[in-house]
Fold each of these.
Amino acid sequence: MTEQLTNTMDKLVSLCKRRGFIYQSSEIYGGINSCYDYGPMGVELKKNIKNLWWKSMVYERDDIEGLDASILMHPRVWEASGHVEGFTDPLVDCKKCKQRFRADQIDTTQGCPNCGGELTEPRMFNLMFKTFMGPVEDDANIVYLRPETAQGIYVNFHNVRESSRRKLPFGIAQIGKAFRNEITPGNFIFRMREFEQMEMQYFVSPGSDEEWFEYWKEERIKWYSRLGIRSEKLRFHQHQEDELAHYAKKAFDIEFEFPFGWNEIEGIHNRTDYDLRRHQEYSRKNLLYFDPETKERYIPYVIETSTGVDRLLLTTLANAYEEEEERVVLRFAPAVAPMKAAVFPLVKKDGMPEVARNIVNGLRKYFRVFYDESGAIGRRYRRQDEIGTPYCFTVDSQTLEDGTVTVRERDTMAQERISQDRVLEYLMERVLI
Ligand code: ATP
């Protein structure tokens, strides 16, 4: 990694803390490894990313329903899914410096990447967090924090299908927390132990799965333009035989070029009928689907699209971050920008603050907006650039004469005047998700 790239990450991390995007969890106690808290700007950015995904999956289509399943599930779910047995990573320790690595991420023949020391034999380590339900801590009461949201969708497939009177093909979308006891968390919020996933499982008839796989692969990469991600920063990576998860017939990752290199941000998987078939076997419930057109009964195939909210938030930040001569600017797509607009009175007198506050009050019902009357106007613009606010409106002496305000656009810094009555409409046209 070059020094300059490391620097970009360092600068991003420091901006995130300074401007209230992301803090280390329990910071006053020295933090807890790989857990993070989202501050006032981070929580808005996160919500907007989730809304954009939900809107494009659920609202804008007529073949996908939403779901919010619980984090704790019956422990048999994780036996059926294969996670108890197979959700493991190979762990090696350096005998000399004691550092820990994932054996599949390093060249173990070269010894420890840190100090060259001898490594232990790989041990398989299960990534699921275990805990106990109820007051008795024995094996009968073990439950797991879900390592993926997908299983909540599979076990509810027939509930959702029946209550929404669906025929195949249709999908179920869910956003929720997932937990993985990662061996080597890191790169800020790229790999965390507690994170949020956005997953959509699309149920199709066997035989149509390959076509739907191609469809979702294309749909998903296209979606990133709505998030404002530059297309040259995205690419596909196809899983080879030895990379495929135990349930997958075919898998592609969408990768983004982070300052620390190309890495996965989303997986598109053909999970075949593996999960539903296993749930049928373990639950002994009939999970067959009756196809009213062909009159056949079968277990549907599943095409999964799975991405992480936190990882997309980091993607969005890394993609948006730019240093110019006189300013640092986050060029977020307006739809996900935490603050949609800022309104300033040029000076704190002559009734300008009242006019500006009036404008803000008219916008608050629809958007997160910011009112700022402190400091020089140039500094106020810079502060908004740093949190990626796409539009700033300034009330000045001309406003008092003709009712127009200045709009200053973040990316070009160009300014124009519009009527103060048009501010809401102006924003509606540009920043709505
Ligand atoms: P890896 O091989 O890097 O551990 P994975 O292939 O197991 O990842 P998936 O199970 O496909 O990851 O997870 C789907 C998505 O969930 C990922 O593309 C990523 O966006 C997100 N995700 C997975 N693990 C984490 C994590 N530890 N922290 C943050 N996001 C994660």
Note: The first strand starts at residue 22 and ends at 24.
Amino acid sequence: MKPVYLDNNATTRVDPQVVAAMLPYFTEQFGNPSSMHAFGAEVGGAVKRARKQLQSLIGAEFDHEIVFTSGGTESDNAAILSALEAMPERTEMITSAVEHPAILALAAHLEKTRGIKVHIIPVDAKGRLDRDAYRAALSTRVAIVSIMWANNETGTLFPVVELAEEAKAVGALFHTDAVQAVGKIPIDLKSTAIDMLSLSGHKLHGPKGIGALYVRRGVRFRSQIKGGQQERGRRGGTENTPGIVGLGKAAELAEQAMHDEVTRVRGLRDRLEKGLLQRIPNTFVTGDVDNRLPNTCNIACEFIEGEAILLLLNRAGIAASSGSACTSGSLEPSHVLRAMSVPYTAAHGATRFSFSRENNDEDVDRVIEAMPPIIEKLRDLSPFWQGAGEAPAAFKPVYA
Ligand code: PLP
């Protein structure tokens, strides 16, 4: 039976059109874009085209605001390190409790090794940022704010356009990790106060190991990879030209698919969610249901282990995830669900299904059919479920 892949927030299949666009840059078009001869010129043109394709997808004003990197993690690191270096008189940063480890691990490291004061802003039960705590943390001591555009586990969207305005008022730079948002929702940076934005190729049917950091014109930027003058001196090292061409093509395809395909994907996600909620008792959706990515469903089934659900789904040919790929393998519920105070009895049984334009109705039917007996079987074995029937009041989720 054809496998059902519903783990697109972890990574996506490279679109065959992307592969086709990349192939010549491994073979005939092998030149170095910095070279002065014809081999270099053609490849230099291809890099420029890719920059424009990304510029268009995120609504940047200028193509040179795009700096190619090795992916989301490098972009996130570069944004924060650059800001702290550019504004040494400011020794604080702000982020949220539900960021990706690419931000949170760096913040912890900076706190420990450089004495940077890190304000970690909490979220509520729906994963929404505590706006009062955010305002209270903002001051002229803050060099950089880094708040994600969309959460990778629940899909919850953050009001980054408004948050950036508030950061600007105290002269802090505003960075957003938009690795999960780019290509899934419309983004138009021109009219915002967002200074920097991270994106990653492999989350939008592009290749792995390539990404970009948008740096608004005029923002003081300090290169974190010293070397040649590539990327206008903002990132040394010969460009990953096949990857850059692939990322550009992926951006173009994502922009084309933005309306019709995203609406179709949302329909698939909603049908899956409705089907599971109807068929499985003591189950609820985590995150901000009314304000989230159209492709993500994080569903918590009380009184069972997420890991066991994944193993049995895998046996049925269905690939999903419990929390983020980086935290699966650990039996602790994810830091995102803990930050949202999802009760332990439910957080353990949280499963993330994330769609892409490659999914179809048959995929949804397969999960709706496979999941209820899996949950029933696991609950039969669960000491917590025995006799629980209806969830005890203390475990009732607080979500409406
Ligand atoms: N930020 C978020 C929100 C992510 O979901 C991921 C990947 O899972 C990353 C950053 C890291 O991106 P990359 O894998 O390109 O380094």
Note: The chain has 13 helices and twelve strands.
